[in-house]
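ok, trying the design again with the full structure, not the truncated one.
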């Protein structure tokens, strides 16, 4: 039995893997392939935007040592390149297979893959969108549209990607939600928040 099974090897898995390595915790990563939403954005030529999160406020703050004085807002390409560097470090811990079933018991879980492999783990962390529709939308939508109004039903990483594409083309974006929205790229200029 392994201590931790991580399903998916996207951005959110990197900090967890670093911590598991630091604490010498036994873990295994199961991920279908390298074709994450970021890989798809790269292949389709859509990594031409800045991110809302800065290096200082992101979970990648451990990469700041050499440029600590620079709290800049990275481009999507810079963020993606950083992720690829860390992904290469841990690639040998990844089993390329698709998780099709998770059975949870009192003291462990059984993870079954499409190839028939079964993993027994004390803890399971799901770090994947399981091929959600948003991944296709981000790569298929015509972001060259301009002077339109868009309403987003929430705020998160996917919404940030959409905003970064729509706002430069003079589109109006309305975010409707009923919860706290973390906006970490705010600047106070002449008494107004941007």
């Amino acid at each position: 039995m392994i201590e931790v099974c991580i399903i998916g090897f996207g951005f959110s898995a990197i900090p967890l893997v670093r911590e598991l390595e630091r604490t010498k915790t036994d873990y295994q990563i199961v991920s279908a392939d390298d074709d994450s939403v970021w890989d798809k954005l790269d292949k389709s030529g859509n990594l031409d935007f800045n991110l809302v999160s800065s290096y200082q406020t992101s979970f990648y703050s451990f990469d700041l040592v050499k440029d600590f004085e620079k709290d800049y807002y990275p481009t999507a390409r810079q963020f993606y390149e950083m992720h690829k560097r860390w992904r290469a470090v841990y690639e040998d811990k990844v089993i390329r297979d698709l998780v099709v079933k998770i059975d949870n018991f009192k003291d462990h879980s059984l993870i079954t893959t499409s190839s028939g492999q079964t993993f027994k783990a004390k803890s399971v962390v799901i770090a994947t969108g399981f091929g959600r529709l948003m991944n296709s939308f981000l790569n298929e939508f015509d972001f060259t549209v301009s002077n339109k109004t868009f309403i987003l039903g929430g705020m998160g990483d996917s919404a940030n990607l959409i905003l970064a594409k729509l706002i430069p083309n003079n589109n109006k974006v309305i975010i409707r939600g009923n919860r706290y929205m973390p906006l970490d790229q705010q600047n106070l200029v002449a008494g107004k928040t941007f």
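Keeping the full-length input from now on. DSSP finds five helices and ten strands in the chain.
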